[in-house]
């Protein structure tokens, strides 16, 4: 997989009609985080250096499918059929 196909901007730098350099517009970093046991979710005392790719990639988002319209199911009817019947609570004598 090339860098460009992975979403990393790449520019060819030519001189005299020949490829001389490749310019990558990307940064990789390492961060000291509290990795064990929360994998960085709770950062108290850093115990590990973790390699990270903080890049921003552009995506073209497409609207998802309307599952309700496709299935033909009435959500209100489904909710009523799925809900347990309401019953009054009774106390046991004891």
Structure description:
This protein has 94 residues and is of the alpha+beta class. It has a domain at 27-55. It is 14% helix and 24% strand. The protein contains 2 helices and 4 strands. Strands 1-2 form a two-stranded antiparallel ribbon. Strand 1 (10-15) and strand 2 (18-24) form a beta hairpin. The chain is elongated.
Topology:
Blueprint lengths: L9 E6 L2 E7 L4 E5 L14 E5 L14 H5 L3 H8 L12
What does the oligomeric state look like here? single chain
Strand content: 15-25%
**Biggest sheet architecture:** 2 strands, antiparallel
Q: Write the element-wise H/E pattern from the N-terminal end onward.
A: EEEEHH
The averaged pLDDT comes out at 79
Strand order of the largest sheet: 1-2
Helix content: 10-25%
Shape: elongated
The count of β-strands is: 4
Low-confidence stretches: none
> How many DSSP helices?
2
Distance N to C terminus: 73 Å
Radius of gyration over alpha carbons? 28 Å
What class, by secondary structure content? alpha+beta
């Amino acid at each position: 997989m090339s860098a460009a196909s992975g979403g990393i901007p790449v520019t060819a730098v030519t001189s005299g009609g020949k490829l001389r350099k490749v310019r990558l517009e990307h940064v990789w970093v390492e961060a000291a985080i509290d990795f064990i046991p929360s994998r960085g979710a709770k950062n108290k005392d850093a115990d590990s250096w973790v390699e990270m790719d903080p890049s921003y990639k552009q995506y073209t988002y497409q609207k998802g499918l309307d599952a309700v319209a496709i299935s033909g199911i009435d959500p209100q009817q489904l909710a009523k059929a799925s809900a347990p019947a309401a019953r009054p609570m009774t106390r046991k004598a004891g």
